[in-house]
Amino acid sequence: MPRAKAARAENPRLQKIVELALDMEEPINAAIHLLRALRLMGYGMGGRVPDEDGESVVAVALAASKRMEDLQATWDRLFRAARERRKSDRR
Fold this sequence. Notes:
single chain; 91 residues; mainly alpha; 3 helices
């Protein structure tokens, strides 16, 4: 059995976590892109409607973007930890 398959077979829990994290990547990135678009819309509204309305949209988008960035950073750490674990298992 190839080394990668052997490592997966030895640690099915780790493999399941990696699979779940991979499934999360696309929705996380999509949400980040949507929030960026919402923020741009808020900036655009600032010149056409009362400032408070555009500023409110921007404030909500910025707060949500920060939370998504935190989630993405956690997601990245999860992958680094899994990769390091695999490297240490191979030794």
